[in-house]
């Protein structure tokens, strides 16, 4: 299925050169934002946030306003026709006829992809359930480029809810494309990184290790990426409570870290980093959130300047096969064409919306 518009659903849909030029543009914008103040005069961005957000939503809005454009949208679907049962297809179709660019966040995996199938303007994925968060990754890459001066040869620790945290999924996929990066996954056995992400890391020639404690890993890291335990994605409160408070980065643990390690966090933090760490010069999470505006300005400019369309569904369409992930958009919006890729062997299908694997 070919779309007339350039969307950003997953960074992997684009070559690394595209990300690199976007990051370079982000650096230029950071150095001289005034130069870009009228680049989007007369343009409108719609932000459809079906899930709570502070940074992502406001940084997108700020980015568009700083480029001279204007914004429309909702951040509480209860106040829109979504509450009357409107499908993503209809909401997207209408709003994309009002706006030049559409940014969507949704609690269900694959929702942004679904929106891109019918939108009459470019669609940007601002987080789809526990699946992906490509614009947080652009923010993270820009932060690494500015603060570590490289995207290669890094040892990156990722700590916390690695199964449900969409930011770490997108970031692993991206960083494994650069040479010599090594991942240390710090989590409980229940919250390990999904198998499909680990397979991508291996296929891209990067390596990973899985450990249970921060103490055993922190001393060897160049970057520590902390994440929140994603309460809203647990099946029950008991399961969440069993994981809560497992990992807390405090001043004592920071003493074990290298002098030039940096701490990132997509935020919001709950209790996984104590406030005393904020004063450590290696704590980079507030700076990271600030850089998110420059990354998103670069993205809006790039997406709006590229006219050629991208393929929206690349897999094989199967009408009779259902995705086995109950949190996949194809199980919520029945009209969507079911599309799967073969993963590795001929018996494993991978849903093109949410990447869930299914044996056939
Ligand atoms: C993250 C998200 O929404 O996935 N936040 C963000 O976009 N900055 C991380 C989180 O909610 O834990």
Low-confidence stretches: none
Strand-pairing-aware structural class: alpha/beta
Biggest sheet layout: 5 strands, parallel
Ligand set = N-carbamoyl-L-aspartate
What separation lies between the terminal Cα atoms?
Answer: 24 Å
Order of helices and strands: HEHEHEHEHEHEHEHEHHEHEEEE
- The portion of residues assigned to helices is 25-40%
Mean pLDDT: 95
> Taking Cα atoms only, what radius of gyration do you get, to the nearest Å?
20 Å
In DSSP terms (H or I, runs of 4 or more residues), the helix count works out at 11
Multimeric organization: single chain
Strand content: 15-25%
Order the strands across the largest sheet as they lie in space. 7-6-5-8-9
Shape: globular
- Total beta-strand segments: 13
Structure, explained:
This protein has 360 residues and is an alpha/beta fold. It has 11 helices and 13 strands. It has a 5-stranded parallel β-sheet with strand order 7-6-5-8-9. A 4-stranded parallel β-sheet has the order 2-1-3-4, with helices on both faces. It has a 4-stranded antiparallel β-sheet with strand order 10-11-12-13, with no helix packed on it. Strand 1 (44-49), helix 2 (55-66) and strand 2 (70-74) form a beta-alpha-beta unit. Helix 1 crosses helix 11 and helix 2 (55-66) crosses helix 11 (285-305). The radius of gyration is 20 Å and the shape is globular. The two termini are 24 Å apart. N-carbamoyl-L-aspartate (NCD) binds at residues 55-56, 127, 133, 136, 166-167, 228, 230, 266-267.
